[in-house]
Design brief:
The protein is α/β, with parallel strands linked by helices. Helices cover 28% and strands 31% of the residues.
């Protein structure tokens, strides 16, 4: 995590609560309640800014080229569309980074993975209800999208979850 960090899709802020004291953290989420809960958990002394914003929309000018790191933990599988559609969110996250900055996160995969019986049922229900949209998300499609937008990509698959890191955004 860089000294200036943006977390997109903040959840409850559980992990950010443990960030170093000298880091300036900004939060972005479409849900104002999530922003409020996460900011409260992390604490005013660490929070620089919060922004209620759709990750598919271009970020405000003062949020571009601003961060050393951006995280997207367990967000991509909740975004609508296939990985080609989600590429817009990944590109926007890259635009928020300083040159040489790093995007990192995790997502639950739906394709080319082996979910257990409970996981299969849960995935079916969540995808049907629109909570998840990851039926066609695979490690290969995620890697391809990241590679299109970043100079250096690392992706590790652990069971049904992909952990990723992408450095040096291609800003063209």
């Amino acid at each position: 995590m860089g000294e200036t960090h943006l977390d997109i899709g903040v959840g409850t802020g559980y992990y950010l609560k443990h960030a170093p004291e000298n880091h300036a953290i900004s939060l972005m989420d479409l849900n104002p309640d999530s922003l409020k809960i996460a900011a409260g958990r992390v604490g005013d002394e660490k929070i620089r800014d919060t922004l209620q914003h759709d990750v598919f929309e271009t970020f405000p000018a003062d949020w571009q080229g601003r961060f050393d790191s951006v995280s997207m933990y367990y967000l991509l599988h909740c975004l609508p569309g296939d990985m080609a559609t989600k590429a817009k969110a990944i590109k926007n996250a890259g635009m928020a980074l300083k040159p040489g900055g790093t995007l990192f996160g995790a997502t639950i995969l739906g394709k080319a993975v082996s979910h257990n019986a409970f996981g299969k049922k849960l995935m079916a229900v969540y995808n049907k209800k629109g909570i998840f949209s990851n039926t066609d998300d695979s490690a290969d499609t995620l890697h391809s999208v990241l590679d299109e937008h970043f100079a250096k990509v690392t992706l590790e698959q652990h069971g049904t979850v992909a952990l990723f890191s992408a450095t040096a955004p291609r800003l063209a």
